Amino acid sequence: MKRQIDIEKISSCIREILIALGDDPDREGLRDTPKRVAKMYEEVFAGMTLSNDEIAQLFGTTFDEEDMVEQSSNRCVIVRDIPIFSYCEHHLALMYNMKVSVAYLPKEKMIGLSKIARIADMVGRRLQLQERIGEEIAEIVEKITESDAIIVMIHGEHSCMTSRGIKKPGTLTTTVTYRGERINHDSDLRQELLMLMK
Ligand SMILES: Nc1nc2c(ncn2[C@@H]2O[C@H](COP(=O)(O)OP(=O)(O)OP(=O)(O)O)[C@@H](O)[C@H]2O)c(=O)[nH]1
Ligand SMILES: [Zn+2]
């Protein structure tokens, strides 16, 4: 899918927005703003140039620790409170104070821990819904580990709810995604992992 972010186009659109706001895009303080915003978009939307398969490939370092996995077939890995940012697709507004926690039961492959944080970070760099961030992280972790028990829990604040519209600062949204046969059918395991993720 390898898509390019069109810096020139974003820059010229931002210039038009400045004009539509009634400001002068050629005044000193705004002269470089279209270019700056375009570069910022290139950074914060970097995940839009990659498919989930490509992210899985990019961060797919795994360890085939068969013995270890066998011995610990009922043990889990939990990476908690990974801070990320994202932008909501409805208002292009910032999602902030976001914390992602991922739990999974290793099957044959164990993923490098930092890669879980890298995946969460990259998935946040798309126009998103909080629910979809969880689904996409879970899908990528499943592609890499082939685990049948994955949970992704996300807490986040949405500036489209806190600084505009209904304006309720402090409102925290929590979403939970389950992925895999085992987690979908084993409610005890679900409860245990959820407790450990809190
Ligand atoms: N489910 C979900 N909804 C979101 C997310 N981010 C923003 N929204 C919601 O998307 C909805 C868009 O609703 P609309 O009625 O089309 O837009 P609006 O008139 O700006 O809505 P208000 O925010 O209520 O003023 C709002 O209720 C937002 O709170 C998200 O990550 N997940
Ligand atoms: Zn929004």
From TrEMBL:
InterPro entries the UniProt entry points to: GTP-CH-I_C/QueF, GTP-CH-I_N, GTP_CycHdrlase_I, GTP_CycHdrlase_I_dom
Self-association and partners: Homopolymer.
Organism of this sequence: Turicibacter bilis
Gene assigned in the entry: folE
Domain GTP cyclohydrolase I: from-to ranges: 11-197
Residues binding Zn(2+), per UniProt: 88, 91, 160
Name this protein carries in UniProt: GTP cyclohydrolase 1
Catalytic activity: GTP + H2O = 7,8-dihydroneopterin 3'-triphosphate + formate + H(+)
Stretches assigned to coiled coil: none
